[in-house]
């Protein structure tokens, strides 16, 4: 499964809470660069109680153990990658914060099965200790895409990247769970 769209009834209120939270995390969020920034679950739980309530409603609060914020400037994209294979992560819950329409998560498949991705281990402040497997644009072809204004469980093991065509900087929150969500659980959500 590449993605599964999920209905969030009070998405607008959750987005309002998350937008209010952004300046806590990014001191200069208007000028921060495109990238994936690790964030603090406890601060989000404290400031975004409606997101917490949503996770209680879908029975995932106890398994929520990671959060990152994906930032993209207009016409910028992240490298094509497969998320941390070390932890065998498969699904993330992506929720748009702001300016996410006209920005996409795009998934790819390798043109040649023998293509080996490049191992990248990031130790920067923003993505503490995450390892990625990255692919060159020439080695893959697009297989699917999802507009990031739609909340969804997304497959982060299949090579993918974010890309934005929105004139304003887009912010999206990506939640990770442990134990990892199974395909059956995602189907039944
Ligand atoms: Fe990713």
Could you explain how this protein is built, in words?
With 189 residues, the protein is of the alpha+beta class. It has a single domain, classed as Jelly Rolls (Sandwich), CATH 2.60.120. The chain is 20% helix and 38% strand. The chain contains 4 helices and 12 strands; from the N terminus they run βαβααββββββββββα. The protein has helices at residues 11-25, 41-47, 49-57, 183-188, and strands at residues 3-5, 35-38, 64-72, 80-82, 91-98, 103-110, 118-122, 130-135, 140-147, 152-155, 160-164, 170-177. The strands form 3 sheets. Strands 1-10-5-12-3-2 form a 6-stranded antiparallel beta sheet, covered by helices on one side. The site of fe (ii) ion (FE2) has 4 residues, from loops.
Quick overview of this protein structure:
The chain has 189 residues and is α+β, with helices and mostly antiparallel strands. It has 4 helices and 12 strands. The strands form 3 sheets. A 6-stranded antiparallel sheet has the order 1-10-5-12-3-2, with helices on one face.
């Amino acid at each position: 499964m590449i993605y599964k769209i999920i209905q969030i009834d009070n998405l607008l209120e959750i987005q309002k809470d998350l937008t209010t939270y952004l300046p806590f995390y990014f001191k200069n969020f208007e000028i921060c660069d495109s990238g994936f920034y690790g964030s603090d679950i406890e601060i989000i739980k404290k400031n975004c109680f409606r997101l917490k309530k949503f996770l209680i409603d879908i029975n995932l609060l106890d398994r929520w153990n990671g959060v990152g914020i994906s930032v993209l400037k207009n016409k910028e994209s992240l490298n094509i990658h497969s998320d941390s294979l070390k932890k065998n992560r498969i699904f993330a819950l992506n929720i748009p914060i702001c300016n996410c329409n006209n920005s996409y998560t795009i998934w790819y498949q390798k043109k040649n099965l023998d293509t080996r991705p490049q191992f990248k281990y990031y130790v920067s402040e923003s993505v503490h200790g995450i390892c990625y497997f990255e692919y060159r644009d020439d080695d893959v072809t697009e297989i699917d895409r999802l507009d990031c204004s739609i909340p969804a469980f997304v497959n982060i093991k299949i090579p993918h990247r974010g890309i934005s065509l929105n004139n304003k900087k887009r912010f999206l929150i990506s939640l990770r769970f442990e134990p990892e969500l199974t395909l059956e659980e995602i189907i039944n959500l």
